[in-house]
Amino acid sequence: MDAVVIGGGIVGLSAAYYLGEAGANVTLYEKNSLGTGSTSRAAGGIRSQFSTEVNVKLSMASREVWERFEDSFGVDLAYRKPGYLFLAQTAEMADQFQQNVQMQNELGVDTELLTPEQASEQCPGLLTDQFTAATYNSTDGFADPNLAVQGYASAARETGVDIQTNTAVTDVLTNGNTVIGVETADGVLSADFVVNTAGAWAARIGEMASVELPIRPRRRQIAVVEPSKPVAEDVPLTINLETGSYFRPERDGAALVGGYFDAEDPDADADTYSESMDMAWAATAVEHAAEYTTYFGPNSRIRRGWAGLYAVTPDHHPIIEETVPGFITAAGFSGHGFQHAPATGQIVRDLCLSDSSTLVDVTPLSGRRFGDNDGGRVEQNVA
User: Fold this and answer.
1) Is 98 exposed, middle or buried (0-12, 13-18, 19+ CB in 10 A)?
2) Which of 86, 197, 305, 342 has the fewest CB neighbours in a 10 Å radius?
3) 8 Å CB contact between 181 and 194
4) How far is the C-alpha of 101 from the C-alpha of 198, rounded, in Å?
5) Which H/E stretch holds residue 257?
6) How is residue 299 annotated by DSSP?
7) Average pLDDT, the chain
8) Is 347 left (phi over 0), alpha (psi -120 to 50) or beta?
């Protein structure tokens, strides 16, 4: 079986590796260098605290790989697990937290529902008066996406995957409704399956195959901050879910600070957007973090930062499916592509080789869910 994977980020490399491991003849095309799209600009979160079953199941299946990544791929991911702490201000959000925890517990995820006072035991700098509830999972954490790219890329090459960097796909070839290959500047390559893992560029690849994908590139920013009070490395990634503000520890007392605070969220141009952090946004992000913790204040110093792209769908879930015969879509993760890449790669392999996957039922992630409405249940735990 011949397969072409379009996109050399973490999802594409995972798909290429698992296809190659299964014996497929795989060529991966990346228009730049590996991992230089959204993957290189990700915060590296790995968590199970989602509000929908399918996302929790993708996390659980992926975590099995992340946990043994060094043994399997020979790369230390700098995987740390200080936990994730989600914060609710309103009674309505607290009720949603309770439902989320019940669902996660039923699936085998050990998330806890906490009072604000209990939450301050995990995050000592938390200002508790404004919160009604929290959820915490001690096994959530983060790793280095660039190291994961190296691990998957090396392993993919060892299985025989032909990785072509600096080579853009210029067209997706079809015969009627069936995708039969791709075209690049180097010529035409026939394939039984073409896999679209192009992230923020996925809709453009879809257009080449005469497929409309509701995946939009949205710009997000992260600041590296020297806080007024050092953030210990065992402080969890802490999110005020109702404002979108979050922070997590970095090395030597520093913190990563993020969030999206504008009322509108316009599409970005994936080719020309600014990869630099906006200082006005960074000041706002630090101000928001200072509203609910004692770590940040007037003496906090913004060291540096960057911007990247989320590939966003209307319900903040990916599209994972055979969209038309011969054309697999695995994109639109809405900021969760890095952490769900291991499961996604295995599912893509299964869709190519046997039309379905027993790892996770991805029926809810079909693009057809957008045909009559805006999709299924919206993922609420987005940061």
Assistant:
1) middle
2) 305
3) yes
4) 33
5) strand 255-258
6) T
7) 96
8) alpha
